[in-house]
Amino acid sequence: MCRLIWLHDEALALFNVDELLPEDRVVFVWDNDYFRNKGWSLSRMVFLYESLLDLPYPNLQVYQGETVSVLRQLVKQNEMAEVFVYRPFEPDLQEIAKELSKSVTMVLLDVPSSLTSPLTTVPPRFYKFWKQVEPEVLGKKLANTGRQKFH
């Protein structure tokens, strides 16, 4: 039986391509209401779309509509038993997963520990986020130069 693997904007590329079965359905739902409610700009949506195009999943399908409705319909049409998804952190995505779980068996996967953020809140802009994670990602910066010291 095929599995429905739901990608969302917090976990686009976490699924290991080598672990996917040929019959698995990898799905992203382009939900205009979700994007509108989040206040996403056109450039952010373009980035998301281009990121989707670059994903390595050979069987990725993008649907447009309300996320819960689309996923419920896909589960019903394809007689799937479960929806696999990486556990969302963002409250709106958590609410979508909660609503979906009322009618569909959800398999919530934990984000690998090497990818979890120690941040208590996620800043609204990349620059502020980058400033918080830069030391962890790049190591200690050289004083006054802002350049990375490599050993």
Automatic annotation (TrEMBL):
<dbReference type="InterPro" id="IPR014729">
    <property type="entry name" value="Rossmann-like_a/b/a_fold"/>
</dbReference>
<protein>
    <recommendedName>
        <fullName>Photolyase/cryptochrome alpha/beta domain-containing protein</fullName>
    </recommendedName>
</protein>
<dbReference type="InterPro" id="IPR036155">
    <property type="entry name" value="Crypto/Photolyase_N_sf"/>
</dbReference>
